[in-house]
Amino acid sequence: MEIKEIWEKFVAEFPEYKEAPIPEAWQFGVSADELAELVVSGVKTATASGHRLYEMESEALPQPGLLNIILNSDDEPVCVTRNTDLIVKPFNEVTAEFADLEGEGDRSLDYWRRVHWDFFTEEYASVGLEFSEDELVVGEIFECLYPLSED
């Protein structure tokens, strides 16, 4: 299914978005298929990114109400999500509650910190930056409004 097709099906079910532009479509940076499936199944309801990367790109932070089309590793759409909340806090202040919402691994804060430390360190290094524990993290909390059904 193409992005335009999932958007048309979504709008048919949610006509209040009829005039909205097609949202950004993207895949998770690591394990795109696994994480997309966690979103569709309702286990993953949050994601985190590095604040300084938004600043580098002069990109606005994602806000509540923002729609996204989540893609699998083949760039095929799997669902439409809507942001419900946004948190911005230092890496070392991310809570166990947020780690649980991310829905990855054993959903613990320890697991979240280990895998996200590695992820952010690598991501920042790829653009010539160093990641530290007091770096701001942007946490998006979302709901899966429209999981793509296989029909």
Name the features:
globular; 5 strands; single chain; alpha+beta; 5-stranded mixed β-sheet; 151 residues
How does this model look, in words?
The structure is a single chain. The protein is an alpha+beta fold. It is built from five helices and five strands. The chain has helices at 3-13, 32-40, 51-56, 96-102, 109-125; strands spanning 24-26, 46-50, 67-71, 77-90, 136-147. The protein has a five-stranded mixed sheet. Strand 3 and strand 4 (77-90) form a beta hairpin. Helix 4 packs across helix 5. The chain is globular, with a radius of gyration of 16 Å. 25% of the residues are buried. The model has no long low-confidence stretch (mean pLDDT 95).
How many E-type strands? 5
Sheet with the most strands, sense and barrel status:
5 strands, mixed
Q: Based on helices, strands and strand pairing, what is the structural class? A: alpha+beta
H-E order: HEHEHEEHHE
Question: Rg from C-alpha positions?
Answer: 16 Å
Low-confidence stretches: none
| Helix amount | 25-40%
Q: Looking across the biggest beta sheet, what order are the strands in? A: 1-3-4-5-2
Mean pLDDT across the residues is 95
Shape: globular
Oligomer: single chain
Helix count equals: 5
Q: End-to-end distance, in Å?
A: 11 Å
Into which percentage range does the β-strand content fall? 25-35%
